[in-house]
Amino acid sequence: MFSLPDVAAAAAGRLAAAHYDFFAGGADDERTLRANTDAFDRYRLRPRVLRGVGERDLTVTVLGQSLSMPVLIAPTAFHRLAHPDGEVGTARAAAAAGTVLVLSMAATQPVEQVAATGVRFWFQLYVQPDRAFTERLVRRVAAAGCGALVVTVDSPVFGRRRRDLRNGFLDLPAGLACENLRDPAGSGPPRAIGWEPGLNWDVLDWLRGITSLPIVLKGILHPADAVRAAERGVDAIIVSNHGGRQLDAAVTGIDALPAVVDAVGDRLPVLVDGGIRRGTDVLTALALGASAVAVGRPVLWGLAVAGADGVRQVLELLRDELDRAMALCGADRVAALGPDLVETVGR
Ligand code: FNR
C-alpha cells in the first residue's frame, strides 16, 4: 500500500458491505461527500525553489500540545466494527505517531481503556438533552485525562444516510456498544445518542460552568459563526461538514477555510477536515491558514486492514507525503507555508 486510496481499496474487500457503507457513506445524494475529495483537484501549488530545505520540521503546537505533525485523528464512530483493536488500536497508533486522537462519543471502547494507552486524546461531545448525563460524561472523560472537549455543532438533527437505510444498518451488532454512554458509567446500559435541535450558543456558558477543559467547536463553515466562536472565547474551531454525512450540498471544508481564517485572524486556531487523502491536501490546508487538519475515513480503512498497525501506516504515509510536499514547495517548517503557494483553478 503506497497511498491512502490503496488502503481504502484494501479495506473495501475486508468489511461486510453494510459496515463498509456505514463508514464510506454520506447524506442524501452524497454530493458533499464527493465534493470533499474532488475539491482538492481545484487547488494547485506554486512551489518556491532554492530555499535550503535540508531537514523539514513538521511539528505544530495546537492548544498547547505539541504534535509531531499537523494531522489529528478526527472523531469517528464504532472502531470495533472496523477491527477488534477498536479505538484502543487507533489510540496506540496515534500515540506512536505523536499526534492527538479525537475520541468519538460513539466509541465502542471505554475512554479509560483508550487513555491507558498513553495517547493524548480529546473527547468529541454531542451535548445531550439530558444535561445531567452530559455533565457526568464530561467529568468522566476529564478524569480519564482528556485534553479538550470537541463539541460537534453541525448536528441539531441527524443526517439522512440512504445507504444505511437500504442496508437496514440502524444499530451496532450484538456485543458492540457505545461504551461511554453507559449510565451509570461502566456498568449501566448504554444510552442512545440524542439530538437536540434547540441547542444554541448559550450552551457554551453551561459548558464553561461545568468544565475547565479547552472547548473546540467542530462543524463550523460560516465565517460569521467562526467570529461568534472567537468572541465567545472558544479555544479552537474545526471547519468541517462532518465528512458529508450531515447537510448534503454543504460547502467543503477546504473551500470554506480561507474566509473563516480571514474572519478570525489569529484569535483562535482553525483546524479543517474533510477529504484529506494526500500530503499535498494537508499542505494546501496549512497554506490556506489551517493550524492542523484531521482525517476520518482513512483511519478507519487502516484499522480495517491491519488494526493499530494499519492506522500507523496511514499516519506515516501522510507524514511522508507531507514531508516530501513541503520539501518540493521550498518549506522547511509549517510556518513557512502561506497562501502565496496556492492557486485555484477552474472557477
Ligand atoms: C464521522 N464523523 C463524526 N464526527 C463527529 O463529530 N462525531 C462522530 O461520532 C462522527 N462519526 C463519524 C463516523 C464515520 C464513519 C465517519 C466517516 C465520520 C465525522 C468526522 O469527524 C470527520 O468530520 C470526517 O470524517 C472528515 O472527513 P473524512 O476525512 O472522512 O473525509
Automatic annotation (TrEMBL):
Keywords: Flavoprotein, FMN, Oxidoreductase
GO molecular function, a single term: oxidoreductase activity
InterPro entries: Aldolase_TIM, Alpha-hydoxy_acid_DH_FMN, FMN-dep_DH, FMN_HAD, FMN_hydac_DH_AS
EC top class, as a word: oxidoreductase
Flavoprotein in keyword set: yes
SUPFAM superfamilies in the record: FMN-linked oxidoreductases
Pfam families according to UniProt: FMN_dh
Family as reported in the entry's similarity comment: Belongs to the FMN-dependent alpha-hydroxy acid dehydrogenase family.
Name by which UniProt lists this protein: Alpha-hydroxy acid oxidase
Organism: Micromonospora zhanjiangensis
